[in-house]
UniProtKB/TrEMBL annotation:
Family: Belongs to the HisA/HisF family.
Any one GO molecular function term: 1-(5-phosphoribosyl)-5-[(5-phosphoribosylamino)methylideneamino]imidazole-4-carboxamide isomerase activity
InterPro entries: Aldolase_TIM, His_biosynth, HisA/PriA, HisA_bact_arch, Isoase_HisA-like, RibuloseP-bd_barrel
UniProt-recorded name of the protein: 1-(5-phosphoribosyl)-5-[(5-phosphoribosylamino)methylideneamino] imidazole-4-carboxamide isomerase
Superkingdom to which the source organism belongs: Bacteria
Organism: Luteimonas salinilitoris
SUPFAM superfamilies: Ribulose-phoshate binding barrel (SSF51366)
EC number: 5.3.1.16
Length: 249
């Protein structure tokens, strides 16, 4: 079990609005308002130390668009921001770090060009890069890693990618069971136990399906280093105070 467990409230932004997608489907969007900065301030006031900020437009099209929001969050709060969406080039990583990001999340490119992202880990440092290996089961029961905002299946398997990145110096890994994302069906603890068994040294962030404080505690007991919270917080099914308390227990 991890000694330090981090709660990451998530703000997913599409066309300037706070939204959630069901199972990564852009056609199944729920909107929660048009004030992501105000929501970030609220999470900071409620005790969050970190924020997970996602540019959904860029995740599908490329070209991170949230730099002004990122700068405002860093300037207005004490939150450390982990952010991504559309990170395709070294210059994208540098821009986000220069704008105040504590960590940059790399998803699709991490699947398509692992050698490139491994070089970034070496250049920028293992504390500054989070690799997102989000997974969906295929017909044979294996875990595949989609790309382009989860709209296309990648060629790599999750197991292959985890193994390669563990050897390549990765420290922070974020993994979402896509079929559970935004569904309030509970996190896939079996998936996280599987990843932990493969690469116990990685700091694994759970994501997808969290319903309540019990899910937060269960992810911690499974050995995850943190958990990303989206819909449950936005809909008041889980308070940030309760999530933080579960993270400390």
């Amino acid at each position: 079990m991890s000694d330090a467990f981090t709660v990451y409230p998530a703000i997913d932004v599409r066309e300037g609005r706070v939204v959630r997608l069901a199972q990564g489907d852009y056609a199944r969007e729920t909107r929660y308002g048009d004030a992501p900065l105000a929501l970030a301030r609220q999470y900071a006031e409620q005790g969050a130390a970190w924020l997970h900020l996602v540019d959904l437009d860029a995740a599908r099209e490329g070209g991170y668009t949230l730099l002004p929001l990122l700068r405002a969050i860093v300037a207005d709060t004490a939150l450390r921001v982990q952010t991504g969406g559309g990170v395709r080039r070294r210059e994208d990583v540098q821009r986000l770090l220069d704008a105040g990001a504590a960590r940059v999340v790399v998803g699709s490119l991490a699947v398509r060009e692992p050698a490139t992202v491994t070089r970034w880990i070496a250049e920028f440092g293992a504390e500054r890069i989070t690799v997102a290996l989000d997974a969906r089961r295929d017909a044979a029961g294996g875990w595949r890693v989609p790309v382009h905002g989860w709209t296309e299946d990648g060629e790599a398997t999750l197991d292959e990618s985890v193994f390669d990145y563990a050897l390549g110096g990765l420290r922070h890994l974020l993994s979402t069971d896509i079929d559970r994302d935004g569904m309030l069906s509970g996190p896939n603890l079996g998936l996280y136990a599987h990843v932990r068994a493969q690469a116990p040294a990685l700091q694994l962030q759970a994501s997808g399906g969290v319903r309540d404080a019990g899910d937060v505690a269960a992810a911690r007991e499974t050995g995850c280093a943190g958990i990303v919270l989206g819909r449950a917080l936005l809909e008041g099914r889980l308070t940030l105070a309760d999530a933080l308390a579960a993270a400390r227990c």
